[in-house]
Amino acid sequence: MRLQYPSNIKIVSIPCTGKVDLIHLLSSFEKGADGVYVLGCLERECRYEKGNLRARKRVEQAQKILESIGIGGERVQMYNLSSSEAPRFVRFANEMTEKIKEMGPNPIKIAMQKKAA
Amino acid sequence: MIVAKQKPIEEIIEETKGYKKILIAGCNECVTVCEAGGKREVAVLASALRMYFMNQGKDVKIDEVTLERQCDHEYLEEIRNTIDQYDAVISLACGVGVQFLAEKYMQMPILPGVDTCFMGVTEERGVWTERCQGCGQCILARTGGICPVSRCAKRLLNGPCGGSTKGNCEINKDLVCGWQLIIDRLKELDRLEDYEKLAPIKDWSTERAGGPRKVIREDVQL
Questions:
Q1: Were A93 and a residue from A5, A99, B4, B165 both cysteine, which residue would form a disulfide, CB within 3.0 to 4.6 Å?
Q2: How far is CA B98 from CA A77, B4, B24, B101, in A?
C-alpha cells in the first residue's frame, strides 16, 4: 500500500504488548517523549491470551500517574489493530500526532532544556 | 503476608515537599507480592517524583534501593553507609518496616509510601483479602481452619449472629458470613458436631487489647 505516516513517530518493536511495563512508559516521558502509544493486537486475539489486556491496564496506570503529576494523562494511549490493517495503523499515527500537537511538548522536555541552558 | 496499598501520589508529593535528596526504599517481601512496595513500585514512584519535581523547576535528587526486608536489622544495615546522603527516606515497606527503619536511623525523616491494611491472601491478581488478625491464641483447630476472629465482622466465637442472611454478612451483602464458611467446612470434614461445642471465653489479653505485644523465645536467644 505504501501508506505514509508522520515521521515524528519512532517505533519500538516488542514481541508482545504484554512486555510493556509501567516503568517503560514513564521512562519515555522522563526522557522527554511528547507522547507514547502502545499498539497491541486486537483484544481476545492475543497469542499469549492476555498480553494486550495487561498492556491496556499499564497504559491506564501511566495515564493516572501522568495526570497526577501534571504531565497530562492523555499523552499515553493504547490502540488495538491486527497486523494486516495498514490504513488503521496510519489513522492511529495521525490521531496520536494530532492529539499531542494540540497538547504541546512534554513539559519535562522543556524543563530539561531550561535546566541545561 | 502483610497486605498494603500504594498511597496516592499526591499525598506522597505533599509529604516530600521541601526535601532535596530523597531515597525511596522498597521491600522484597510482602509488599512486593501485593504489588505495593517492591522494586517495580520503587522505580515507578521514583520516576513519577523525578518528573513532578522537574516539572516544578525543582532540583530534587531521587534515588532507589530495595532491601530484602525492612523488618530485620541486617538488611537495614545495608544502607548505613549511604543513608546520610539524603534528607528523607520514603519507605514502601509495611508499617513495620517504616517504623524499624525510623528506629534504626533516628536522625532521618522516614515517610510511609504505602498504607498497611491487613494480614491476608492473594485471592486473584489484584484482589487481596484478610485472613488473620494476630490475636495471639489460634483457635483454627476448632473452627475448621476458618477464623471467626478475622472472618466474622463481630468476631463471634459460637456461631453466627442474627444478621447472617443467605450465607452473607449483614454489614455488606457481598461479604460472606464467616460462620457460614465455618459450618460449610465442618460439614465437608464430617465434623459438624464440633459446631455444638461451646468455645471457652477467649483471653483477649494476647490480642491488641493487651497493649503492644512481644514474643520472647529464650530457646533461640543467644
A1: A5
A2: 36, 12, 11, 5
Q: Which domains are seen in chain B, by residue range?
A: 2-118 (3.40.50.2300), 135-210 (no CATH)
| Residues whose CB is less than 8 angstroms from the CB of residue B8 and which lie 6 or more positions away in sequence, other chains included | A68
CB-based burial, A68-104: b 16+ in 10 Å, e otherwise: bbebbbebbbbbbbeeeeeeebeebbeebbeebeeee
- The predicted-structure confidence for B152-166, as pLDDT tens digits, reads as follows 999 999 999 999 999
Cβ separation of B48 and A65 shorter than 8 Å? yes
Cα A114 off chain centre by: 25
**B219 part of contact set with chain A, CB < 8 Å:** no
Beta-carbon pairs below 8 A across chains A and B: 45
- The distance in angstroms from the start CA to the end CA of chain B is 27
Q: What share of chain B is helix, strand, coil (3-state, %, to 5)?
A: 35, 25, 45
pLDDT tens, B64-121?
999 999 999 999 999 999 999 999 999 999 999 999 999 999 999 999 999 999 999 9
CA distance A108 to chain B (A): 6
| CA gap A11, A89 in Å, rounded | 12
The reply to whether ipTM tops 0.90 is yes
Q: Which three cell numbers stand for residue B83?
A: 543513608
Distance between CA atoms of residues B59 and B55, nearest Å: 10
CB A24: neighbour CB atoms within 10 A? 15
